[in-house]
Amino acid sequence: MTAPLSDYRSWGGLAARGSAIVDGRDWLDAPHRPRRPLLAYGNGRSYGDSCLNDGGTLIDTRGLDDILAFDRETGLITCGAGLMLDRLLEIAVPAGWFPPVTPGTAFVTIGGALANDVHGKNHHSAGTFGCHIRAFELVRSDGQRLLCAPDLNGELFAATIGGFGLTGLVTQVTLQLMPIASAEMAQEVLPFDNLDGFFEIATASDATHDYTVAWIDSLASGRNLGRGVFFRANHAPASDEPPPRQARTLPFPLKPPVPLINRVTLGAFNWLYRNSQPRDRLERRVPYRPFFYPLDRIHDWNRAYGPQGLRQFQCAIPPENAAATVAEMLRQTLAAGEASFLTVLKLFGDKPSPGLMSFPMPGATLTLDFPNRGERTERLLARLDGLAIAAGGRVNPYKDARMSPETFAASFPRWRDFAAHVDPGFSSGFWRRVTAQ
Questions:
Q1: SS (H, E, C) the chain
Q2: What angle do CA 117, 431, 133 make, to 5 degrees?
Q3: Among 129, 198, 270, 331, which one is least packed by beta carbons within 10 Å?
Q4: What is the pLDDT of residues 387-407, one digit of tens each?
Q5: Are strands 250-251 and 228-235 parallel, antiparallel or unpaired?
Q6: Do the beta carbons of residue 162 and residue 116 sit within 8 Å?
Q7: What letters, b where the CB count within 10 A reaches 16 and e where it falls short, cover 68-95?
Q8: What value does the mean pLDDT of the chain take?
Q9: β-pair partners for 304
Q10: Which residue ranges form the domains of the chain, and what is each CATH number?
Q11: Are 397 and 141 in contact, with CB atoms under 8 Å apart?
């Protein structure tokens, strides 16, 4: 049973305009190349239009959510592509296993994580999600059902991981989980006063901790430009102590007519957030969910950005240009009078993905988000795009809703090689936009 069309949106608030909806199970009973382009839809947590298909057909995959096999001795699991990561965690963690890579929300499907080749706080130690996929089934629009693995249909395997769902419908995925001794993290919290402080802590932490990430105060300027709080952690060892209590999840209480994110509200939040963190730098055991998925505690938190939604920007910058480029991006954001709530900075490692179009590259990655204020927001994002490309970096497609074909081509110079593997029956709003189709 599919939901009303109005429920099919991206997390940034873009709607699926004029799309038809078909249940994934129904389409698999009679796969065919339609007159209108197809695209798989998971849980809509991509921020832009990579999960949308205006005027086409969305295949709702959330009914393809069975656990098909789970070897509790080896951690190898095969599941339907529509299985929610949240559900996988409920099954795997009590058995002593954990996803080797996880994004910042548990409300994504496994197929969506594959299609975007998501990364997490441990890219420097584990690479991307695609590094741990052992095989998947791909159904093409002509009805072909193909098993793909590194040594079987290898080119399609590489094109599909990080391929935006454009190579066909992934129906099931075999993933290698990683062993854990507890459901807790051994976490340290380290405040820093500027960008130099971030790079010093991050470089040292990547050698000692599997998970590293920093929150940045986007309103800080001058000698405090780039100040923030650094979080680093490893999976905690087993313990006889009772686990810390998990906080309750809460719904966002309203749909505000205007954005609640502005310089005044963000200034107050940033002060409170920075000053509420422990200052002693001691290691503490914390539950895994608030460490990996802090915003999942507030359902529909994207409503805070108002009825026009939000625009998120994420770039990757090579090491030699990272510090200067990140600093200039923060200055440009301040000069534009914008306020970014989710300002996240971390280092990517040199862990190549099997995915042909995977986003991460060695260096730094900065994430910013803004209430969508139309042309004003578009101008700032275009300037940030230009800074990323000029520094030899790239812009993240699955966080994007407006990059130009030129920015996409500069970010992914091998996109034409990838295009040769796109299923002729599949497309998306993002793909048509960046390839000017």
A1: CCCCHHHCECCCCCECCCCEEEEHHHHHHCCCCCCCCEEEECCCCCCCCCCCCCCCEEEECCCCCCEEEEECCCCEEEEECCCEHHHHHHHHHHHCEECCCCCCCCCCEHHHHHHCCCCCCCHHHHCCHHHHEEEEEEECCCCCEEEEECCECHHHHHHHCCCCCCCCEEEEEEEECEECCCCEEEEEEEEECCHHHHHHHHHHHCCCCCEEEEEECCCCCHHHCCCEEEEEEEECCCCCCCCCCCCCCEECCCCCCCCCCCHHHHHHHHHHHHHHCCCCCCCEEEEHHHHHCHHHHEECHHHHHCCCCEEEEEEEECHHHHHHHHHHHHHHHHHCCCCCCCCEEEEECCCCCCCCCCCCCCEEEEEEEEECCCHHHHHHHHHHHHHHHHCCCEECHHHCCCCCHHHHHHHCCCHHHHHCCCCCCECCHHHHHHCCC
A2: 20
A3: 331
A4: 999 999 999 999 999 999 999
A5: unpaired
A6: yes
A7: eebeeeebebbbbbbbbbbebbeebbee
A8: 95
A9: none
A10: 184-237+252-404 (3.40.462.20)
A11: no
Give per-residue pLDDT as tens, 17-39.
999 999 999 999 987 777 899 99
Pair of tokens at residue 204: 């040292």
